[in-house]
Amino acid sequence: MRRRGLLGSAAAWSAGLPAAAFAAGNTRPRVSLAALQAHLRFLASPLLEGRETGSRGFDIAAAYVASHFARLGLRPLGDDGGFAQGVRLKTARLASTPPVLRLWRGARSESLAYLDEFSTRPDLQATHSEVTAPLVFAGHGIQAPGFGLDDYAGLDVRGRIVVVLAGRPPHLPSEEGAHFSSRLTKMAVAARLGAVGMISLGTPRSERVAPFHLARQYAGTAAMDWQGPDGQAGSEMAALRGWAAVSLQKAPDLLAALTRDYPRLVADAEAGRPVPRGPLGLTAEMTCDSVHGHTRSHNVVGLIPGQHPQRRDECLLLTAHLDHLGRKTGPQGDVIYPGAMDNALGLATLLEVASLLAQAPQPQRSILVAALTGEEQGQLGSAYLAAHPPVPAAQLTAAVNIDMPILLHDFSEVVALGGEHSTLGAAAARAAAGLGLKTVPDPQPEQARFTRSDQYSFVRRGIPAVILGPGTGSFNAQEDGAALMRDYRAQRYHQPGDDLSQPFHWGAVQRHAQLHADLMQLLADQAERPQWLPGDFFGELFRPGR
To answer: Residue 314 is part of a domain; what is its CATH number?
Structure first.
């Protein structure tokens, strides 16, 4: 595919919008491709060293965003009258002593090789964690009675280490499946049932989504959790004393007592067919040493005030995360992870959309614009903002998040993750139709994207949320959008190659930004407040006071 220069041409600029956007008398503000490219060029610059949470590069990027908020006339909602909302973070890194995962069958033991056969995470709760207990296999480790699924039915896991398959059965709906398959949800279920540890087994599907070998890349990365003003940890940490992920190659050994045909068991579990579950005749010893510390970072928050006498107290959220992976030391020395697509492009979009909204006639609802920290560490900045909003929590009406739009093809489709759960879906479809786009279901539900970005922090507080991204369809019949997106995920996602040299489709970049500008304007001015659909799964699960 021909590579496009960073600046693009006037023809590429105008190609992003339908002809109606340029018709005489159409006064709708149009995004500036030049502005988008300028923001992207700076935010993905090596000067910022990958914008890791708590780093100097992140602080430079945050100062850049704050200066633009000030230029646009946004009202600062951070600490001490500024745009920065401070977030205190507790950190944990693995100590130099390697973690241990040892399996016992009677008097015989086998130690798994760290980062070759198993991986683990630093423990934010204890500097030394250790647990020894029998193993019990519980399928995918999911309890979803509303979908007829209970992997723990008939099992007693009290005082046991639960062994589960990574991921979830594909027949679960995309967003609900993302919730049930998340590591934290599975750990919370196991802890509630009395388990003391968890081992997640690699599968062919999980290997495609998150290859095990990437564990080596993240081994030196700190785990983080935000802390409230009272110093208490903000996230709900499951009370398990050990967690590990076992590679696809080693996984069959743990289930040998149940089956010698691991691929068949996985296939049956993913198809919803019964699989053998229960004790594995093994005892596991799991040990991990962690080094604790503290750091600080901040969200950048500003307000576009509404003008309607009543609706101005209803506050929409427009968010994108500012952080990425920083720089890491490898065999060839220090390597920078620029995070151009993830998420410098999302931040560039947020800044240009905020510019259009600030220049347009004052919206009826207020719009809280936020550049967030700590997304790569588990949506920490958004979780803090959702728990400590700079406006009364009851005023938060809906959230629109922008994260890693893979804009490599002339997309003709829009995926609105979360849209089917609230009236945000109809609004997104209306905004898309205005640009000649159609909305389609998530083509990659196995990615579990709904729970893996900042919109989920607001969903967990009972606030309807949506994240928009391109579908695989293209206006150019010669383009294979699905192949281009797969290539990005396989070759450049969370890699040094996510940089400015990528073949961005500039027409798509402009169209994507215009879509968000149109959606925010629509939500700000429509008569009805966004709300969950009656009886919705997430609306009920996270209903305030439930």
So the answer is: 3.40.630.10
Give, as one character, the DSSP assignment of residue 168: -
Q: Give me the DSSP letters along 288-351.
A: EEEEEEEEEEEEEEEEE---STTGGGSEEEEEEE--B-EEEEETTEEEEE--IIIIIHHHHHHH
The whole-model pTM stands at 0.91
Residues 383-422: b if buried by 16+ CB within 10 A, e if exposed: bbbbeebbeeeeebbbbbbbbbbbbbbbbbbbbbbbbbbb
pLDDT tens track for 506-515: 999 999 999 9
What amino acid is encoded at 406 in this protein?
Answer: I
Q: In this predicted model, what pLDDT tens digit does every residue of 377-403 receive, in sequence order? A: 999 999 999 999 999 999 999 999 999
For residue 372, being part of any structural domain is answered with yes
Distance (Å, whole) CA 266 – CA 263: 5
**Residue tagged 């945050």 (tokens):** 62
Give dist(CA 201, CA 183) in Å, integer: 12
The whole domain housing 340 covers 30-73+305-541
Same domain, 172 and 37: no
**Same domain membership, residue 256 and residue 277:** yes
Query: Number of helices and strands (H, E) in the chain?
Result: 16, 21
Residue 213 corresponds to which tokens in the numbers above? Answer: 């070998």
The domain total for the chain is: 2
Q: Are residues 167 and 255 in the same domain?
A: yes
Angle in degrees, CA 388, 379, 458, rounded to 5: 55
